[in-house]
Design a protein that fits this description.
Number of strands: 10
Shape: globular
Oligomer: single chain
Structural class: alpha/beta
Strand content: 25-35%
Largest sheet: 7 strands, mixed
Number of domains: 1
CATH topology: Rossmann fold
Strand order of the largest sheet: 3-2-1-4-5-10-9
CATH superfamily: Vaccinia Virus protein VP39
Helix content: 25-40%
Number of helices: 6
CATH architecture: 3-Layer(aba) Sandwich
């Protein structure tokens, strides 16, 4: 999985949501997740905590953000808010079985370099989720490679295959590159089914209004809703 330097983690932590390309998929995540008032939610791969804060605004009683990147967790812990906590993890999520009511995983799987590692992460999320809990996964739209968005762009490559490296250029005053991995919709569905999820629904959210680049024509991300069934 990609590791952020302290400097790049700090840049990422200052991105915000409104007016960024991430706003498109975060709005969709909120819509798909639905009413979670009083629930306990896991944010797997919380990064600098933007998605964690979003889930808290939806009415969750408690949101637990976990991430493998120490520099991202350091940024996230700067957020002081009741009902939000952050933990650095290695492989296992430090929570009991069937502990959370729902889980989100935003912009994480695109940084995972193997299907085995992705399956392990999906199984861990399933383990700590209650039966019939909702999981929302946000990841890069396979068709977005080569598109120009407000906040980032993926370098164009010819006919990428599952597991191929792709480069994301994060835009801004202090631009930097992120080493991501190309995965297809079918890859995501296969992994979720193997981990014990069902009733899987996929959307490709587009931006609306003015001020965008290709966000209104090609969805930056794929949004997947799945239910823990076993």
């Amino acid at each position: 999985m990609y590791k952020y330097s302290p400097e790049n983690a700090a840049i990422y932590g200052k991105l915000g949501v409104i007016g960024t390309t991430y706003e498109v998929s975060f709005n969709e995540m909120a819509r798909v997740l639905g009413e979670i008032s009083g629930g306990r939610v896991l944010d797997y791969g919380c990064g600098a905590g933007r998605s964690t804060q979003l889930v808290k605004t939806l009415g969750a009683k408690e949101v637990i953000g976990v991430d493998h990147d120490a520099n991202m967790i350091e940024q996230a812990k700067r957020l002081q808010e009741n009902g939000i906590s952050f933990q650095l993890i290695t492989d296992r999520i430090p929570l009991p079985d069937e502990y959370v009511d729902a889980a989100v995983c935003a912009h994480v799987w695109v940084e995972i370099k193997s299907k085995d590692e992705m399956i392990q992460s999906a199984k861990e999320m399933a383990r700590v989720m209650k039966r019939d809990g909702i999981l929302v996964v946000i990841s890069t739209n396979p068709d977005s490679i080569g598109c120009e968005y407000v906040s980032y762009a993926y370098k164009k490559v010819g006919n990428p295959r599952s597991g191929d490296p792709i480069i994301c250029i994060l835009k801004g005053e202090n631009s930097f590159e992120i080493d991501d991995v190309y995965w297809t919709e079918q890859d995501y569905l296969q992994i979720l089914e193997e981990a014990g999820f069902s009733h899987i629904n996929v959307t490709y959210p587009l931006a609306e209004g003015e001020g965008w680049l290709e966000e209104t024509n090609v969805a930056p991300d794929i949004a997947i809703k799945a239910i823990k069934s076993t």
